[in-house]
Amino acid sequence: MKQTRSDVAKVADLEIENKLLREENRLLKAKLFGRSSESKKTLSQDSQPSLFCVAELEADEPDEASSEETVTYTRRKPRGKRKPIPDHFPRREVLHDVAEEDKVCACGAERTRIGEETSEQLDLIPAKVEVIRHVRPKYACRSCEGLESTDGTVVIAPAPESMIPKSLAGPGLLADVITAKFADAIPFYRHEKRLARLGIELSRTVMFQWAEKVANRCRPLVALMKRTALSLPYLQIDETPVRVHGEEDKANTTQSYMWEIRGAPPDGPQIMLDFYSPTRSADFAKTFLSEYQGLVHSDAYSGYGFLEKVPGIVHLGCWAHARRKFSETILATKKGKGGKKQSKAHRVLSYIGKLYQHEKKADAV
Q1: For residue 260, which phi and psi values (nearest 5 degrees)?
Q2: How far is it, in rounded angstroms, from Cα 56 to Cα 341?
Q3: CA 308, CA 316: separation in Å to the nearest integer?
Q4: Closest Cα to residue 202, out of 225, 170, 229, 231?
Q5: 104 secondary structure, DSSP code
Q6: Among the listed residues 237, 232, 230, 229, the one whose alpha carbon sits nearest the alpha carbon of residue 299
Q7: pLDDT in tens, 129-149
Q8: Where are the domains of the chain?
Q9: pTM of structure
Q10: pLDDT band at 71, cuts 50/70/90?
Q11: Are strands 294-297 and 313-316 parallel, antiparallel or unpaired?
Q12: CB 260 within 8 A of CB 271
């Protein structure tokens, strides 16, 4: 039976489609049943070329499987070395001495102290609750009863500044509530029980109100941090999903997003800003970076595509996301195992691995 050109083309298309489906099936199996981490072990151990040695990368590797030799031996497993307790922690010495009668030898002579053995334990003192009682003495003149004074009849020192005026919350308690919620991710209802064990009766409703008032007082600080971040030559931006319970016009199962902006001046501490957004729309990033000039580092989310068109902004991609595609290619094609020729994806991963090594060395400088 004679085949036409259209038949040959159809067969070729079906073969390509079949190959793609097999690779897709292999990749899905690897993701479902294989390791979840993108380890460098997907590369063969001897396929780590030099970063700049392009000629070696272009050369084909032999197809023959290398001979293997199995060597067995017994190795003594080394003991893990415990890290010393940092010196900046205060020390409290506890003396464990022998009884007085044991300090006398059987010959009748008194034993001499020739040394000592020491060991250290790390202990934690539970939180201490105290009440700060502010006392402001009042003063008055009994002679003229204040008639000749411009300060009034009674003189008293001004009330101390407070984060929340007329509140019983001291700075330490407020810091504990805010840190537990937003740094340690402890819900208010759990923190309520924790404080109850210390004898503090504090409802989660009050803690929520405190957090809201502290946030409002910190708005000028956040504005200053934002101005500082926008003046930096380099910024990182990312978004992460978060669920907000009881949000108006949204079900508890729907996702909202926290947008994180991070940067660091050359001679100052790192700046991290988190902003809430009900959606993943790029409108937030467009608004925040509307007047920014510099380098912006992000992942491959399509919402950051507008950065390519903004004058004055250089958009930097994420190597981790780029690397993932080549790692998935290796999983899908199964090349590079059993002595087979290394694929281009292996070579790209070798390049990226070398870049990671140079970056690690640069961070240590």
Answers
A1: -110, 130
A2: 13
A3: 9
A4: 170
A5: B
A6: 237
A7: 999 999 999 998 887 776 777
A8: 160-217
A9: 0.66
A10: low
A11: parallel
A12: no
